[in-house]
Design a protein that fits this description.
mainly beta; 5-stranded mixed sheet; 3-stranded antiparallel sheet; 19 strands
């Protein structure tokens, strides 16, 4: 006699969107997602007995960004840490480009699992960077610009006071806040002699 047919997902529930057609002989899953993957079982039985067939559904996906890069501005000498993160099946691998040219590990440059680290950036590191995440189904790109600030110390005009008048016995504060990149070292002199810290 014509068998009755039933379907089940082994170790799980049938997707709620799944449809059965042709007297339940066809299981149809529209818009397949990663969670639909698994082992499916088709069981056919009639008065003479039953038979079972199992098949594995594997779902693969194009890479998709979870975390992208942001344009970054750093002082010369600062460290850079950029991370780009993507999902996908198979799991994506990562590559880096700088100004369109492949970037390779060097003494100051590390690249591990989508993380780019540059120890102590300098002006030569400035440029446009791209992170590529790829699996056998496709490649996606994330881009960001790295700007390096490098300037000799300059003093804002509002700090250029030639004379400070103060009453004897009071406290005086003289500010020294130059604009510079990287951060400058600061020394003080009184006349030609270097100032040393004391109780006062």
């Amino acid at each position: 006699p014509v068998p009755t047919i039933s379907w089940r997902k082994v170790n799980g529930h049938n997707p709620s969107k799944a449809r059965l057609r042709k007297s339940q002989a066809v299981l149809e899953i529209p818009n397949v997602q990663l969670e639909d993957a698994g082992m499916y079982e088709c069981k056919a039985e009639n008065s003479r007995g039953r038979n079972v067939f199992r098949g594995q559904l594997q779902v693969y996906t194009y890479p998709h960004w979870v975390e992208k890069l942001n344009d970054t501005q750093l002082d010369s000498g600062d460290p850079l840490r950029w991370e780009c993160k993507a999902t996908g099946k198979p799991r994506p691998t990562y590559r880096w480009l700088k100004n369109g040219v492949p970037l390779w590990p060097q003494s100051r440059i590390e690249m591990v699992n989508g993380v780019l680290i540059i120890h102590s950036v300098n002006v030569s590191d400035a440029g446009m960077y791209q992170c590529l995440a790829e699996n056998k189904y496709g490649t996606i790109y994330a881009s960001a610009e790295l700007k390096i600030l490098a300037s000799a110390p300059t003093f804002p005009l509002n700090q250029m006071r030639k004379t400070i008048i103060i009453t004897k016995g009071q406290e005086v504060v003289i500010e020294c806040k130059p604009q510079a990149s990287p951060k400058p070292t600061i020394t003080w002199k009184k006349g030609d002699k270097a100032l040393r810290e004391s109780k006062r």
